[in-house]
Write a structure and sequence with these properties.
Number of helices: 8
Distance between the termini: 43 Å
Order of helices and strands: EEEHEEHEHHHEHEHEEH
Structural class: alpha/beta
Radius of gyration: 18 Å
Largest sheet: 6 strands, mixed
Number of strands: 10
Length: 268
């Protein structure tokens, strides 16, 4: 692999008393309640919980897509929202987002999909091309720069989405079930790739998943959310050394951790 362009600094995240209430049809639904958490620069955090526990709602608030009803979010010390639901553009510029659906533009090549954020930032064509090529190599798609999305597998399309999210050197990478639609073998490969990228780029990562083994494999800390309303039920530190190999899942310590997480979630 060739080296990527120099990365922007990882950013801290601070959540203080984050609460989200939805109102509609004459009723109010409390989705997330009083979540406070400090995330260090370069830390890999996983939000884990059952379906509809508020994981994605919390990530959308972190991503500037959904203002909290109460509480404050700070990125590198800068408030993301102004108290009236408006987003601070500078803080927002520190974020990269990867969704379960890659949302690639069908008429654009791999290279031009990756470079899209840089076009929005009005960087030069030469810089866009160099950054896109470097990131394509980093995610294992160096031979597919000219390919259109329809020619790619699901895992390859998600690699493009990850590269695109990194294109503008965000300090924080937010990932909402990015591998949830992939088959088990491809998902395992993507977990290894994501770990490799994180070790190289050292971004702050917040990943939402309902996969216990994925959380245990990737995280520095796992934030277990309770059933709705989503509250922090427990924060679990994961101490396995890095890089982590596939064989880790057969380690008794890994199996003990995943069993404990299942109990925490009420699955056993």
């Amino acid at each position: 692999m060739i080296e990527s362009a120099s990365s922007g600094p990882a950013a801290s995240l601070t959540l203080q008393g984050i609460t989200k209430t939805y109102a509609g049809r004459g009723q109010r639904t409390l989705a997330v309640e009083d979540v406070s958490l400090t995330i260090a620069p370069g830390e890999f955090i996983v939000l884990l919980g059952r379906s509809r526990c508020g994981k994605s709602t919390l990530l959308k608030m972190l991503g500037g897509l959904l203002p909290p009803s109460h509480g404050e979010i700070r990125i590198a010390g800068r408030a993301l929202y102004d108290g009236r639901g408006r987003v601070d553009g500078t803080a927002l510029g520190s974020l990269g987002f990867v969704f379960q659906d890659p949302n690639l533009l069908a008429w654009r090549s791999v290279s031009r999909n990756i470079a899209l954020p840089l076009e929005i930032l009005d960087t030069t064509r030469a810089d866009r091309r160099a950054r896109a090529e470097a990131l394509a190599h980093e995610v294992g798609l160096g031979e597919f720069l000219a390919a259109l999305p329809r020619a790619l597998s699901g895992g390859m399309r998600q690699r493009v989405a990850i590269a695109r999210a990194l294109a503008a050197n965000p300090g924080v990478l937010l990932m909402d079930e990015p591998f949830g639609a992939l088959d088990a073998m491809t998902r395992d490969d993507m977990n290894l790739l994501l770990q490799e990228i994180w070790l190289k780029e050292r971004k702050t990562v917040v990943l939402v998943t309902h996969s216990i083994s994925e959380a245990a494999f990737l995280a520095d800390r796992i934030v277990v959310l309770s059933p709705r309303p989503g509250r922090i039920q427990r924060v679990v530190s994961v101490d396995f050394s890095r890089p982590r190999a596939k064989a880790l899942i057969d380690d008794p310590r890994f199996q003990a951790l995943t069993a404990a997480l299942r109990r925490e979630l009420g699955e056993s």
